[in-house]
Specification:
The complex is a heterodimer of chains A (114) and B (114).
Chain A (H helix, E strand, L loop, with lengths): L4 E3 L2 E4 L5 E6 L6 E7 L5 E8 L2 E5 L7 E4 L6 E5 L8 E8 L8 E2 L3 E5 L1
Parallel strand pairs in A: 2-11
Antiparallel strand pairs in A: 1-3, 3-8, 4-5, 4-9, 5-6, 7-8, 9-10, 9-11
Chain B lengths: L3 E4 L2 E5 L4 E7 L4 E9 L5 E8 L4 E4 L2 E6 L4 E6 L8 E9 L7 E3 L3 E6 L1
Parallel strand pairs in B: 2-11
Antiparallel strand pairs in B: 1-3, 3-8, 4-5, 4-9, 6-7, 7-8, 9-10, 9-11
The chains are: A mainly beta (114), B mainly beta (114).
């Protein structure tokens, strides 16, 4: 069964460093998402991406964040200068172009900023 | 602004019991609702998706119902097993664009005692 994959599973970085989280969505999907979950809190939407551009972003997704689909299979989230409060589990999700619009989630990348 | 709440926050039951998890949302204008399972430190596994036009969906021992007008959904788990122990999340998708985000509830932590 096709699945969303994410790498790395765990990333430790120092405050101020840049990180890139990688996702490979399900191959025929057209819509891509990043969510995050700070420990003990709700899963929160960050950004959605369709047709090679951002279609919606939350207030969390400020200028420090960017997304890219560099090669037609990968979908990346970049955080330019990490802060302690960026420590969270980051989930990638994708869905197809036709109903019922179910979103499929990857296993997540745990980002720890020290 | 859509708010999603889940009650109870935690539930412990003996193996074999039937149980009900509740999800409520403040804005009834939803496109669909998904129930997810999350194991500790892991990703989100989609269990069921209910379209706004549907009243319920079933998968194995799971049955999810939706009452859009009252802003409620329930997840019924029959004959619970220790392997059902996990956090259960509901998430709603609103209208207003093809790429609309999921808004997640707070989750119910379920423990099934052998």
């Amino acid at each position: 069964e096709p699945e969303v994959t994410q790498t790395p599973s765990h990333q430790v970085t120092q405050m101020g460093q840049e990180v890139i989280l990688r996702c490979v969505p399900i191959s025929n999907h057209l819509y891509f998402y990043w969510y995050r979950q700070i420990l003990g809190q709700k899963v929160e939407f960050l950004v959605s991406f369709y047709n090679n551009e951002i279609s919606e972003k939350s207030e969390i997704f400020d200028d420090q964040f960017s997304v890219e689909r560099p090669d037609g299979s990968n979908f990346t989230l970049k955080i330019r200068s990490t802060k302690l409060e960026d420590s969270a589990m980051y989930f990638c999700a994708s869905r197809g172009g036709q109903g019922p619009y179910e979103q499929y989630f990857g296993p997540g990348t745990r980002l720890t900023v020290t | 602004k859509q708010e999603v709440t889940q009650i109870p926050a935690a539930l412990s039951v003996p193996e074999g019991e039937n149980l009900v998890l509740n999800c409520s949302f403040t804005d009834s204008a939803i496109y669909n609702l998904q129930w997810f399972r999350q194991d500790p430190g892991k990703g989100l596994t989609s269990l069921l998706l209910i379209q706004s036009s549907q009243r319920e969906q079933t998968s194995g021992r799971l049955n999810a119902s939706l009452d859009k007008s009252s802003g409620r959904s329930t997840l019924y788990i029959a004959a619970s097993q220790p392997g059902d122990s996990a956090t259960y999340l509901c998430a709603v998708r609103g209208y207003g664009g093809a790429t609309n985000k999921l808004i997640f509830g707070t989750g119910t932590l379920l423990a099934v005692q052998p």
